[in-house]
Design goal:
91 residues, alpha+beta, Ubiquitin-like (UB roll), globular, disordered N terminus
């Protein structure tokens, strides 16, 4: 997975933009960031997030890739937008 260069890019070739929402921003201390990941699955992105922010391991989260809720074994491709939300319920 190789993303095109961006002025917000923090270096390296294997990076992906991750955005955090609601209380997850409080846990991470950032709204968005570029993470270098190994592999091309959602699981690989989550592993990197959990490595960097161990408190998120215990937090219920939902991962959205390009406006679609995804599972850990789905592929992340170049240019995908990764959003991490707390679970949402409505009524």
């Amino acid at each position: 997975m190789k993303l095109q260069s961006s002025e917000n890019h923090i270096g390296g070739d294997d990076v992906i933009k991750v955005m955090y929402f609601a209380y997850l921003k409080d846990i991470t201390g950032v709204k968005e960031e570029w993470l270098e990941i190994d592999g091309n699955l959602v699981r690989n992105v989550l592993n990197k997030i959990f490595e960097k922010y161990p408190k998120l391991k215990d937090a219920p989260i939902m991962v959205v890739v390009d406006k679609k809720i995804v599972k850990e074994d789905e592929v992340v491709e170049e240019g995908d937008e990764i959003r991490v939300y707390p679970p949402v319920c409505g009524g």
